[in-house]
Write a structure and sequence with these properties.
The structure is a single chain. By secondary structure, the protein is an all-alpha fold. It contains nine helices and no strands. Helix 2 crosses helix 4. It is elongated, with a radius of gyration of 20 Å.
Length: 209
């Protein structure tokens, strides 16, 4: 990789500013969901996951021409969903995808019936049998350390709204960081190629990042 010092410094600053702005926007948007009803929060968090998965796939593949196609794919279909694509590309883990599928299941159960507007997450989880609760505790435990996994599993019993929010918030944040990294990497590759052409005297222009 060949970059002039001033370009490397400029790119580093752009990366810092871009990442800070992206994370600040995500935090502001998602934190506002905590003020919503349980029903609205689940619906909005699911929409945030879908949009972020789409964005990270497009950033990784550099194929924005496919945006309309990717956007229309279901999130959690195990064969053709955008979540499965993200797993195959190494953008999310299988454990994270399992959580997304479980969360999508909850969202889908809520969105199709008007009476679910009064949905209460605490009552919902209190009404689960042992196996249902076990499945949720397993799904939410996708974090990278046993301590974090146990903390969320315990919180799921005590405050399911906050447990689900924190799990989605963390996952969306991780994917946003990955998206920004791919966008920066694209710029680095473009600038490096341009620098090499200049060093060897090739004045032809390549495509921009």
């Amino acid at each position: 990789m060949y970059l002039y010092r001033d370009e490397a410094e400029r790119l580093t600053e752009e990366m810092r500013q871009g990442l800070n702005k992206a994370l600040r926007n995500i935090s502001d948007q998602l934190l506002a969901f905590l003020e919503d009803t349980d029903w609205a929060m689940v619906i909005k968090l699911h929409a945030a996951i879908e949009a972020t998965v789409t964005q990270v796939i497009l950033a990784h593949t550099n194929q924005d021409v496919l945006r309309s196609v990717i956007e229309r794919l279901p999130l959690s279909d195990n064969q053709t969903g955008k979540g499965r694509i993200a797993v195959e590309l190494g953008l999310i883990t299988s454990s994270q995808f399992s959580f997304l599928r479980k969360f999508s299941e909850l969202r889908n159960n809520l969105v199709h019936r008007l009476e679910n507007i009064d949905f209460d997450l605490r009552k919902h989880f209190e009404g689960m049998d042992k196996e249902q609760r076990k499945a949720w505790r397993k799904a939410i435990a996708w974090q990278d350390t046993a301590v974090k996994q146990e903390a969320l599993a315990v919180m799921l019993d005590q405050n399911p709204k906050m447990a689900l929010f924190l799990s989605v918030f963390t996952l969306v944040t991780l994917m946003t960081v990955a998206e920004q990294e791919y966008l920066v990497r694209r710029k680095v590759d473009f600038l490096s190629e341009r620098t090499m052409r200049e060093l060897v005297g090739d004045t032809s222009e390549g495509d921009g990042p």
